[in-house]
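Illustration: TIGR02678 family protein.
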Amino acid sequence: MAAGAVKRASRRERNAEFMQERKRACMHALLNRPWITKEHDPDLYFLIRDHYKELRDWFMDKAGFPLILTRTIAKLDKTPVKAFPWMGFAEFRERRDYIFFTYGLWYLEGKTELDQFLLTDIVEEIREQMLGAGMDADWRNYYDRLSMARALKKLRSLGVLYSVDGDESNWAQDGERNVLYECSPTARYVLRRFPRDLTECSRLEELEDPIPYADTQDGQSMRWRHRVYRRLLLEPVVADRHWDEDDLNYVLWQRRTIIDQLEKTLGWAGRRYREGLIFFHPELTSEADLFPTLSFASDVAVLVAGEIRKQLTDENGLSTEDNGSVRMTRAELETLLYRLQSSHKEYWSKEYRESASQDLAQLCMKHLAEWGLGEWENENSFLISPVLGRWEAVYDL
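Result:
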């Protein structure tokens, strides 16, 4: 091959890699952000617009996720197969926060872009609408005001609502001071699109599918494919025992295709282990939270993984279940954390050096549950996933 042809081939290869990296950046952003706005991230917005057709077709074909592109935002309409507590808003503390948040969206749907209104206008209309639905909101009640303030603050942090003058926190304190808001063009895109009229649904399960599926073999096959990719794209880890039977059969038969697809499009490294099909992000990224995180809870979790591995090799130590999980009582985990605290407290902050083993165990179990690496069987029994055994950590002495 001539030198010029080699250079051209090398240039084409570099260009192809560059384009693939650009598309990956778009896909990671769409998966991990509520949306991308032209106002705040114009480079990424226009990059998504340039690759819109490819991105739209891949997400729809593999997961059934519609990709919405308007003159102001790009949004991937993500629908989880299973809802988990960590999918909610960390700032919200009560169910009522979500009710007020939803009614806030209802109010904003009636507004046009850049419409201005007062806080007293929105809260009074919401109260009247809730009364008509058999619910109540009493703005003389401090806790109702506080809950409403959290909902409004979340709408502002999402960029759905702009504060022109004032702050809802002051209103929450005394119920008298007012706030001037302005409506954002993204307000009508917060809630996902539903494939059918909500008034026709009587069960939550009827809202699980992101698109309608034909009642045929092809339609069912598409639904299985979408369910599998949706879980792999949105959940940290899915062990074999957590799949439905039909979905697991799809994973087992199509694992090579799934691994190739997610490696090519997202750069994830997939491996088939005894416990399931697991994907790892080979590089650090600012778009997604990765396990282990930078939190102390992750440090404790990987230390616990190492201790469990040691005990599994002892004749009188722990044992595994048939599916590879390790069952531990609360007391056993507290004892293990007490030993870790005694051995490593010189590396821990003052807060955790002085924490009770019960609090450390609770912190660890909550963290593992959020990452799909453990689950409560009952109040006193915790199952640790065999996937956690893929990590081990020691302090660099």
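Reading the tokens back as a structure: The longest helix spans residues 3-32.
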